[in-house]
From TrEMBL:
It is a multi-pass membrane protein. Residues 22-224 form the MacB-like periplasmic core domain. This is FtsX-like permease family protein. The keyword ATP-binding does not apply. The lineage of its organism: Bacteria, Pseudomonadati, Planctomycetota, Planctomycetia, Pirellulales. Residues 258-369 form the ABC3 transporter permease C-terminal domain. GO terms for cellular component: plasma membrane. It comes from the Bacteria. It holds the Pfam family FtsX.
Length: 375
């Protein structure tokens, strides 16, 4: 009976029902898209880490962000290579540089020097150009998603980095960092030639472990043998890089505030819808009270109404979110919405809708059936 009453009451005023559904749909879409944009943006803070095959990253003590590396002696790789559980160690160099543009201007780029004969630490796949692009003299690889920043260079086009000639030998796709500075990949030794980087130094040591090795134990062993370095698993360093930008930019606060606003809008619209329905039918609810419907049963009717609005609105919101994600997500503005975010958003908004039923309930419980019916 109560389900039938709740359902029919909602359908009787479809205008108010639509307003409530719009509030829920708006909240679902906003929370998911905001959360997806935030996760996509934070994913860019660790692009080099996530796309490498390294299980452990070793950098100068206190390393906090993958793009801001501090040099340390390259020879330390032999110390790391001799530790129990270590299978392979490769150095990686990261340095800022300036690339010349055809119009005479310059663009600051993040130059990444990789070992050409190893996949460890190489974060890109060639999509335009030969697979061995970096084996050519003066060769660099850029990402086609950053072509606009680099003024659309053609394959084999000549440019300069720090006044030294280079050739665009290949292009990757989707390797974009958090900074507005494009990644440019080159041979490990050539980075030193282009930037004046001390050949005796490196930026990182990338470690691949043997099958049964304990990553945390190896990290502790590295730091014990080399007190001037920090060693982190790939997942730990990815989180450290993301946390660095969250704290430095306040980006988490801005996204969180927008998400909270969406939830409040949904709460207000659902609560207002249910409250307006109660006000329009004060006499009907008074009649129900007069014939013996107690407060608990009346509350259950309102909760059922909220549940119906929530379930229908969340379902529509999920469908709309998937459509918008496919239409709006790009490599530069990636929207990553994991299943856990969908699930958490749905549960949260469902609970908020149930809480919203408290507003009309407070109005109903003050109704005096005799006064209303006599009036």
């Amino acid at each position: 009976m109560r389900w039938n009453l709740a359902y029919r009451t909602l359908l009787h005023d479809r205008g108010k029902l639509t307003a409530g559904l719009v509030g829920v749909i708006f909240s679902v879409v906003l929370v998911n898209l905001q959360g997806g944009l935030f996760l996509g943006l934070m994913g860019k803070t660790s692009t080099l880490i996530d796309r490498s095959d390294a299980q452990i990253w070793v950098g100068h003590r206190g390393m906090r962000n993958v793009d801001f590396a501090h040099p340390f002696p390259e020879r330390w790789q032999y110390v790391v290579a001799g530790l129990k559980g270590v299978d392979q160690v490769e150095p990686l160099r990261v340095e800022f540089a300036e690339m010349s543009m055809p119009d005479g201007n310059f663009e600051t780029v993040v130059l990444v020097g990789v070992q050409e004969d190893s996949d460890l630490g190489r974060p890109y796949e060639i999509v335009t150009g030969p697979a061995d692009a970096l084996q050519k003299n003066d060769a660099v690889v850029i990402d086609d998603c950053d072509q606009d920043l680099l003024r659309d260079p053609a394959l084999n086009e000549l440019r300069e980095i720090n006044g030294r000639r280079i050739r665009i030998a290949g292009k990757s796709h989707g390797v974009i960092g958090f900074l507005a500075n494009p990644y440019v990949f080159t041979r490990y030794e050539q980075l030193a030639e282009l930037t004046g980087f001390d050949r005796r130094d490196t930026s990182y040591l990338l470690v691949q472990l043997k099958p049964d090795a304990d990553a945390d134990a190896v990290c502790e062993a590295i730091e014990a043998r080399l007190p001037d370095v920090s060693a982190m698993t790939a997942s730990q360093y990815a989180w450290t890089s993301a946390d660095f930008w969250i704290r430095r930019t306040g980006i988490g606060l801005s996204f969180g505030a927008a998400t909270l606003l969406g939830l409040l809008v949904g709460l207000v619209m659902v609560g207002q819808t249910l409250y307006a329905m109660v006000l329009d039918r004060v006499s009907e609810y008074a009649t129900l009270r007069a014939i013996g419907l107690n407060e608990r049963e009346l509350l259950s009717v309102l909760i059922m109404q909220s549940a119906i609005v929530a379930i229908v609105g969340i379902a529509i919101g999920f469908v709309l979110t998937v459509v918008l994600q496919g239409a709006l997500s790009t490599p530069k503005a990636t929207i990553e919405i994991p299943t856990l975010l969908y699930l958490g958003c749905g549960i949260l908004i469902f609970v908020i809708c149930l809480v919203a039923s408290a507003l009309p309930y407070l109005r109903i419980r003050r109704i005096d059936p005799h006064v209303v019916l006599q009036g």
